[in-house]
Amino acid sequence: MSKRLTWLDALRGLTVLSMILYHGTWNAVYLYGASLPWYEGLPGYLWQQSICWTFILVAGFCSQIGRHRLKRGLLISACGLLVTVATTLYSPVTKILFGVLTFHGAAVLLSIPLEKPLKKIPPAIGLASSALLFLLTRNAGSGCWGFEGLALGRVPAAFYQDNLTAFLGFPGPGFYSADYFPLIPWIFLFFCGFFLYGLLKTAAGNEPIASLPAIRRLEAHQAPKVLQFIGRHALIFYLLHQPVLEGGFTLLGMIKK
Fold first, then answer.
1. DSSP letters of 69-129?
2. Mean pLDDT taken over the chain
3. Contact of 147 with 78, CB cutoff 8 Å
4. Chain centroid to CA 124: how far?
5. Potential cystine with 96: which of 111, 118, 161, 179 (Cβ 3.0-4.6 Å)?
6. For residues 68 and 168, which has the higher predicted lDDT (pLDDT)?
7. Arithmetic mean of pLDDT, 25-54
């Protein structure tokens, strides 16, 4: 793409800010005893889901944008491994195994060999099929097919074995992760973003999608620069936000004493 989409950066930046606020609230509630019933109920769950859905959709959308995807996928995967090692050593009770960075890196790497066959699928059909597969497999980690409260049958127990099956989406007995994003169902949401980009690219013909009238109108209203900056450096903000939050809460506790 010849022109960077500022509002796409801003959306990613807004999602990162929302994630930081969500994790800060999580720390306050579960580590420091703050009483926020709404956070532990449906509103908190919807907040959490809005973050991960937006992040993964944008990641899938951007999977065809830019160069050096192999390098990017390996870098994100390495950062996911770093998070796993750090949380396991520092705080085993909140360790992160197969978290969002591990998923993101794996999804980017998978998109490289799958790009050509995926592009043979009409984008509208691909988007609808990916959305349907996501809805059908959303509850796979809990032992059944279906979405949220809709159960469409049990997944065979033989699928749930060990960490390998956990990575795929079928965690074995005793598996735990404070941040768990397996390939199934999230790869299908990632593909929704992939095919959404394809829809826009088809509409734009041989031109960049930035040439589409709707996107030109959106880009004419400049996105907040601070959100663009955060969005362009989302990986750094993700890696640093939890240590900064921990330091802030520790400092606040010392001041109160």
1. HHHHHHHHHHHHHHHHHHHHHH-GGG--SS-HHHHHHHHHHHHHHHHHHHHTS-HHHHHHH
2. 92
3. no
4. 22
5. 179
6. 168
7. 92
**What is the tally of structural domains in the chain?**
1
3-state secondary structure 64-79: CCCCCHHHHHHHHHHH
Inside any domain, residue 189: yes
In a domain, 80, yes or no: yes
- Rounded CA separation 52/186 (Å): 9
Which of the 8 DSSP states describes residue 41? S
60: containing domain: 6-256
Claim: this prediction has a pTM higher than 0.90: yes
Contact yes or no for 172/162 (Cβ under 8 A): yes
Amino acid at position 59, single letter: A
The answer to whether the bond into 185 is cis (omega within 30° of 0) is yes
| Contact (CB, 8 A) for 95 and 178 | yes
Phi (first) and psi of residue 154, to 5 degrees: -80, 145
Distance from C-alpha of 17 to C-alpha of 39, rounded to nearest angstrom: 17
Residue 1 lies in a domain: no
Give me the long-range contacts of 180-184 (CB less than 8 A, separation at least 24): 180/97, 180/98, 180/99, 180/141, 181/52, 181/56, 181/98, 181/99, 181/100, 181/102, 181/103, 182/98, 182/103, 182/141, 183/103, 183/106, 183/107, 184/137, 184/140
